[in-house]
Fold these 2 entries.
Entry 1:
Amino acid sequence: MVEIAASIMIADFCHLAGELKDLEEAGADWIHWDVMDGNFVPNLTFGAWIINSAREASGLPFDVHLMVTDPELIISQLTLREGDLVVEHVEAVTDPRADLLTIREKGWRGGLAISPATPIQGALDEAWMSLLDVVVVMGVQPGFAGQTFIEETLEKVRSVRRQLNSRGKDTLVEVDGGVNVTNAPKLIDRGANILVAGKSIFKAGVPYEQAIASLRGSASR
């Protein structure tokens, strides 16, 4: 089943609780949070305090994407629910095992994200493969919403899925950045399970329910 993660980065933060409620009612599967520190990426968004405050305003699982140089710090500040997802970038840490173990100890799910220029081997290292619940393939350069999808992402998703399958892993594959009704079916066909959508939901010019249904419908073809 195709799962849609609504990227809250471009939501109306003046009415955040209402946006969370609307997304849940519209059929989103996840709420996706892009935490940016202005260092790992040249943009600054929000930290753990806002995510923790919003946690009680939504019944959906949270997908927290750490685009930061010190993911351990943010992980220590988060207050999430069992089953929520926390992802850090493979480029940000030399060895993610300690963070992934901490995430599991807290009852959350953990993952690694791969930027466009990074080979997939870094995320699929045998040393921490058993600790991964999700591998996130970036479809754009991390840091800003609304970018154009990088077509080479399609083959990267296929390669990630093939390597996971070859090792007998049912790890989820998530694609973040530039996802739309055109590339969604191609991504699912190549092995993606979760699609992160920001512009395709918030800037679609139609109600959230319709935008999410269109994206899910195209991905299911």
Note: The mean pLDDT is 96.
Entry 2:
Amino acid sequence: MSLKNSTMETSTRLTQDVKKLVKLVERMQGESGQNVYKCFTTFIDVSLEALRRAKVRDLAWKPELGVFEPAYDTLCRMVAVLFDQLLPEITYQDVVGALYMDLETSSKHFGQFFTPFPVAQMMAMLTIPTDEVTLSRYTRERPLTICDPACGSGIMLLAAASILPPGFIEHGRAAFYGMDIDDLCVKMAQLNATLYGLDGVPAFIKTTTELTPDEVERLPEPHKSQIQQTLFDLKETKEAA
């Protein structure tokens, strides 16, 4: 299958899955009596923890949902839609980011518009010389570093992962670093990274203001300098307030 046909097929599937999730969010609202933003954030929190528990085979875990307890079955269905992204093959589609935008829970005042996957994938292809990305050139000790200092839901990290050679991620040859000043975006990016196996050590996805000096030092240039400047600006703004 050509890249064009593959992209069209996954895009169609993304649209279908987002429609499913939108209907489930609406059902979740009715069952819990909570607004759409609270429903979405609960879905992200539960999905992220469920994936982390699944990776350590803690199959007995059940979330404490409080007011969302009546929506337990609906939440299970929503998590199942995420797991479907791994079958029959990994899609690397940003389902949670697409849902976030479709529900209009993003803040347009801060310019939160996530890059469409085909555009992100094209940018990844222009940035990463795939003919030079081989298992022999990059190792676990010296991995290919992929960094997005304003990662949003992690779409650029997913796009980069989608064009790497087969087995590259599984063999730990790539380290994905992402950061953002928006805590919810970071959770979405962490969820995507966990779902698609991009969360291996030594990489990390964190809120920018929570980065340690050691973590900043580990970032490649020019991202390290950009993050240092962002942290400096945030500190100046806080002190001036």
Note: Strands lie at 144-148, 174-180, 205-207.
